[in-house]
UniProtKB/TrEMBL annotation:
This is Olfactory receptor. It is found in: Cell membrane; Membrane. One of its GO terms (molecular function) is G protein-coupled receptor activity. The chain crosses the membrane at residues 20-44, 56-75, 95-117, 138-160, 193-219, 231-250, 270-290. Gene3D superfamilies: Rhodopsin 7-helix transmembrane proteins (1.20.1070.10).
Length: 316
């Protein structure tokens, strides 16, 4: 066995569909472009529009920033695999990608929690909204999420690095994730299994409980309101509920397949992993552009201004 820091891993595209690699690259680059343009448009809109400098939109700005980073961490390398057959990745670069994938996923989960709490305060304690969610509180929440994500996810590449590996290492994903890399080791990786489970329960497990609790309290409050008021209250949560479902359903599916689906279709866990990492950065800006009236109106107005400016420039 060779020590980890001398290794090169080989990344796969989608096993069994190698003959379609060139064509698979087109939806990947399309998803990347939509993700970057969509999320950057939301960030630009929130930054430029003074009316949107509220907690809800500040959290949305951060969610969009994380989505851009997740897409950039995964998709360019995938394009290299599909279009240029660039499959090799050094072990240390694999560890770096692994950390950022898990760290950014933890950040996204944490931001979804803060957005759920934001909706809870806005609906259940509207008169205290501005006094509870102050800029100081938001800053502390964001720092807490970042520190927790870094502290919990940093050990993952470190406990992989301590393991001996064979010279030939083929990863079935198009990116490096802890739960697959550990299975290639030539030694007992029980510590990795236990810590991986601990990390996902500490971050995603607790976060999902807080999100669920927030919506239980929201529903309890909304039920007592008049029909029109309850519909309006729920409409402010629609985009966030969609974002939560887009994030957590593939995560749960991926976790179940990795732990209990050993005899299932080998490509199933690859599909879940791709959906979990690639779909939220693409879908979230679309969801928020459609479901959030303020964002939608600002984006339409900005687009019209750009078109008008282009026509005026063309007249010269």
């Amino acid at each position: 066995a060779s020590r980890c820091n001398h290794l090169v891993f080989t990344l796969s595209g989608i096993p069994g569909l190698e003959y379609l690699n060139f064509w698979i690259g087109y939806p990947v680059i399309a998803m990347y472009i939509v993700s970057v343009l969509g999320n950057c448009s939301i960030m630009y809109t929130v930054k430029m529009e003074q009316d949107l400098h509220e907690p809800m939109y500040i959290f949305l700005f951060m969610l969009s920033a994380v989505d851009v980073l997740i897409a950039t961490t995964t998709m360019p390398k995938m394009l290299g695999i599909f279009w240029f057959n660039s499959r090799e990745i050094t072990f240390n670069m694999c560890l770096v990608q692994m950390f950022f994938i898990h760290f950014l996923s933890a950040l996204e989960s944490g931001i979804l929690v803060t957005m759920a709490i934001d909706r809870y305060v806005a609906i259940c304690h509207p008169l205290r909204y501005t006094s509870i969610l102050t800029s100081k509180t938001i800053t502390k929440a964001v720092l807490g999420i970042a520190v927790r994500g870094a502290a919990v996810m940093m050990p993952l590449p470190l406990i992989i690095k301590r393991l001996p590996f064979p010279i030939s290492n083929l990863l079935t994903h198009s990116f490096c994730v802890h739960q697959e890399a550990m299975k290639l080791a030539c030694a007992d990786y029980t510590v990795n299994i236990v810590y991986g489970l601990f990390a996902i329960l500490l971050v995603m497990g607790i976060d999902s409980l807080f999100i669920s609790l927030s919506y239980v309290l929201i529903i309890k409050t909304v039920v007592g309101l008049a029909e029109e008021a309850s519909v309006k209250a729920f409409s402010t949560c629609a985009a966030h509920i969609c974002a939560v479902l887009v994030y957590y359903i593939p995560l749960i599916g991926l976790s179940v397949v990795h732990r209990f689906g050993m005899n299932s279709n080998h490509n199933l866990h690859i599909v879940f992993a791709d959906v979990y990492l690639l779909v939220p950065p693409v879908i979230n800006p679309i969801i928020y552009s459609i479901k959030t009236k303020q964002i939608r109106n600002r984006l339409i107005r900005l687009f019209r201004q750009k078109v008008k400016g282009t026509k005026l420039f063309g007249d010269f």
